[in-house]
Amino acid sequence: MTREYEMFEYEIATAVRSADLIREAAEYRTARAARKAHRASSPDQEPRRRVHALRRRSTGAACSAPRTA
After folding, report:
1. What residue segments make up the domains of the chain, in order of their start?
2. What per-residue confidence (pLDDT) applies to 21?
3. What are the start-end ranges of the H helices in the chain?
């Protein structure tokens, strides 16, 4: 193989990888926008992680409180 051919092959591989990354980023942005739109369409429902965080804090405080007999 000549050096020119190796450089050409490298440039092609780099361009393909770059195109893949751009396509993957666009898919991620589309999915994120869809999730955001879904949450906006149902404002009465809070995201689950907030509920879990609140539950974790409240149970932690209850477990650490001193018990009286």
Report:
1. 3-53
2. 98
3. 3-41, 48-64
